[in-house]
């Protein structure tokens, strides 16, 4: 009897060890929602990370002027997407929440400042934050099954950067993924730190030099970091394939500090809010 029990216990322990050390690392890339064709993606915990609009939300009137840079993929520059006051408030409420930014590679989270050197902060959902979430949703036409992910601020000091990557997130599983990105600048008292898209073409009009770095020697285009403004783009074609042209980087900050805000929208067909 005792021997049998010992054998069962041993078997059990060996199974657990086997699972932890052998199977789980093998399965992890398949279980994870953050695999991204070998490209680093930002840490993300699914359902907790999505926000749901509140019916009784009252937001101040705010207008901004969209400038379409490209229709395929859709890339739109939004000067004054945030007011200066909103940008300042977000910098202030993020200040105590910063932690080193991580990357995901084949489903495994890691810290590698040669790929991504910045700090990230999950923003508490103040009234202003909720109104910005609502603005991002409104801009996208209140699309069915599209949910805003909780907002993250990213802070870059001198040497801070993020190498070229896609924001795709998950693909597959009913087309779920990060359908769109708003890259918003909250604080840009810096040199460098632009957002570089090597595979997007410079538009012919010089007017774009107000928003793009026309002196840059880099291939493609670089949006200048400007407080309050945003770059919006869509990550997928209608057939669910990703746009290679959305490959982008946060160029190194040379002097000063840049704080950015990521607003990602997820297409989650059939997903409904969890009642709390
Ligand atoms: C990362 O950024 C910090 C803060 O700006 C800087 O001091 C450091 O040198 C950078 N490290 C790398 C590896 O780029
Ligand atoms: C911006 O940077 C300049 C020069 O480094 C500094 O004097 C100024 O106080 C900064 N402004 C803000 C709002 O941080």
Task: Report on the architecture of this protein.
With 276 residues, the chain is of the alpha+beta class. The protein has a single domain, classed as q2cbj1_9rhob like domain (Jelly Rolls). It has four helices and 17 strands. Strands 1, 2, 3, 4, 8, 9, 10, 12, 15 and 17 form a ten-stranded antiparallel sheet that branches. Strands 7-11-16-13-14 form a five-stranded antiparallel sheet, with no helix packed on it. A hairpin with a 2-residue loop joins β5 (103-105) and β6. 36% of the residues are buried. The model is unreliable at 18-45 (pLDDT under 50). The site of one 2-acetamido-2-deoxy-beta-D-glucopyranose has 2 residues, from loops.
List the helices and strands and how they pair.
Elements: H1 2-31, H2 46-49, E1 50-51, E2 67-71, E3 74-78, H3 84-94, E4 99-100, E5 103-105, E6 108-110, E7 116-117, E8 119-122, H4 127-139, E9 146-149, E10 152-156, E11 161-165, E12 177-192, E13 195-197, E14 221-223, E15 230-234, E16 248-250, E17 253-267
Antiparallel strand pairs: 1-9, 2-3, 3-15, 4-8, 5-6, 7-11, 8-10, 9-17, 10-17, 11-16, 12-15, 12-17, 13-14, 13-16
The site of one 2-acetamido-2-deoxy-beta-D-glucopyranose has 7 residues, from loops.
Transmembrane segments: 12-31
InterPro entries: P4HA-like, Pro_4_hyd_alph, Pro_4_hyd_alph_FE2OG_OXY
Keywords: Dioxygenase, Iron, Membrane, Metal-binding, Oxidoreductase, Transmembrane, Transmembrane helix
């Amino acid at each position: 009897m005792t021997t049998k029990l010992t054998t069962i216990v041993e078997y059990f322990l060996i199974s657990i060890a086997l699972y932890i050390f052998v199977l789980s690392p093998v399965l992890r890339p398949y279980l994870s929602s953050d695999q991204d064709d070998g490209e680093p993606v930002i840490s993300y915990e699914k359902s907790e990370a999505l926000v749901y609009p509140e019916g009784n939300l009252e937001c101040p009137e705010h207008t901004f002027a969209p400038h379409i840079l490209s229709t395929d993929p859709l890339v739109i520059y939004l000067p004054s997407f945030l007011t200066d006051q909103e940008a300042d408030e977000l910098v202030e409420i993020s200040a105590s929440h910063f932690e080193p930014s991580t990357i995901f590679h084949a489903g495994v989270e890691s810290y590698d400042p040669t790929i991504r050197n910045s700090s990230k902060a999950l923003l508490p959902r103040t009234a202003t934050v909720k109104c910005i979430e609502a603005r991002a949703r409104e801009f996208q036409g209140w699309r069915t099954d599209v949910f805003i992910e909780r907002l993250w601020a990213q802070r870059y000091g001198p040497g801070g950067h993020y190498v070229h990557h896609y924001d795709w997130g998950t693909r597959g599983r009913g087309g779920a993924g990060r359908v769109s990105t708003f890259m918003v600048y909250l604080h840009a008292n810096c040199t460098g730190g632009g957002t570089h898209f090597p595979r997007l073409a410079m538009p012919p009009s010089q007017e774009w030099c107000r928003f793009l770095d026309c002196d840059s020697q880099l291939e493609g285009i670089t949006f200048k970091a400007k407080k309050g403004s945003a770059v919006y783009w869509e990550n997928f074609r209608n057939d669910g394939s990703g746009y290679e042209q959305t490959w982008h980087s946060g160029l190194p900050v040379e002097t000063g500090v840049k704080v950015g805000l990521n607003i990602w929208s997820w297409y989650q067909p059939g997903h409904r809010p969890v009642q709390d």
